[in-house]
Amino acid sequence: MDQLSEAFINALYLLFSGDRELWIIVATSFSVSLRAILVATPIAIVIAFLLAMTRFPGQRSLVMIIHTLQAVPAVVVGLTVYIVLSRQGPLGDWRLLFTQTAMIVGQILLCLPLLISMAHATFAGADRRAWETARTLGANRVQATLTFFYELRFALLAAIIAGFGRIIAEVGSSIMVGGNILHHTRNIPTAIALETAKGEYAQGLALGIVLLLLAFGLNALLHLSQQQRPVYA
User: Fold this and answer.
1) Is residue 71 part of a domain?
2) Cβ neighbours of residue 128 closer than 8 Å, sequence gap 6 or more
3) Domain holding 138: CATH number?
4) Domain region containing 205
5) Are 170 and 189 in contact (CB under 8 A)?
6) Does pLDDT of 229 surpass 70?
7) Cα dihedral sign, 56-61-62-63
8) What is the DSSP string of the chain?
9) I want to staple 98 with a disulfide (CB 3.0 to 4.6 A). Which of 154, 179, 189, 221 is the partner?
10) pLDDT digits (tens, 9 = 90+) for 153-203
11) How many domains, the chain?
12) Considering the domain boundaries, does residue 221 fall inside one?
């Protein structure tokens, strides 16, 4: 108990003293995950919109595959990216392995199925009167589509928040393709795993507190967006 109390006090000290190594890890984690979600979001929304608004052979099978991919473990995604980017892999000449770019690729692959599934459910269950009204008032297809997106912005925001939460805390993919390199690819989850393995709990607890605060903030934002979601008659 004394060891835990001491580790917790040291964790708080690291947080509030501005420990350089700690905040480099936090900055790396947020930088990688934010870039991943920024790339994945427009791709996912376009795919989800097309799946919900169009009909083509094999559509249901494709939707089922996307739903299934949500359950793929992060370590499997990491292994796949590792094989592709390794020296013997098809993209080995690009030398992306153990870089932040490789981590971003892994995180994009992790969050895409979740983003697509949630956005698809949003589009499929939406009231299409906003799109139809915009078209009636003379808007072209692009303008009507943007109006439709705007009406569903809170539900889409919920999908983005869920996707970001999925990747900011994942460890399997990041440690495999990033290599956990200090000041370069070491993010919050990989640092927690490393410090715990070494028996150094203070930094791990400090980073865990950051993740808890992030989770609280994301859930508060999600709750706020759900409260503000418009209700159609």
Assistant:
1) yes
2) 148
3) 1.10.3720.10
4) 2-227
5) yes
6) no
7) positive
8) -HHHHHHHHHHHHHHHTT-HHHHHHHHHHHHHHHHHHHHHHHHHHHHHHHHHH---TTHHHHHHHHHHHTTS-HHHHHHHHHHHHSTTSTTGGG--TTSHHHHHHHHHHHHHHHHHHHHHHHHHTS-THHHHHHHHTT--HHHHHHHHHHHTHHHHHHHHHHHHHHHHT--HHHHHHHTT-TTTT--HHHHHHHHHHHT-HHHHHHHHHHHHHHHHHHHHHHHHHHHT-----
9) 179
10) 888 998 999 999 999 999 999 999 999 999 999 999 999 999 888 888 898
11) 1
12) yes
Q: Tell me if the pTM is above 0.85.
A: yes
Q: Is residue 15 part of a domain?
A: yes
**For residue 95, what are the contacts with CB-CB under 8 A and spacing of at least 6?**
none
* Residue 138 confidence (pLDDT): 76
Examine residue 56 and state whether it is found in any structural domain, yes or no: yes
Residues 6+ apart with CB under 8 A from 174: 32, 74, 78, 103, 106, 107, 180, 185, 187, 189, 190
Residue located via tokens 């390794």: 86
Return the amino acid letter for 97.
L
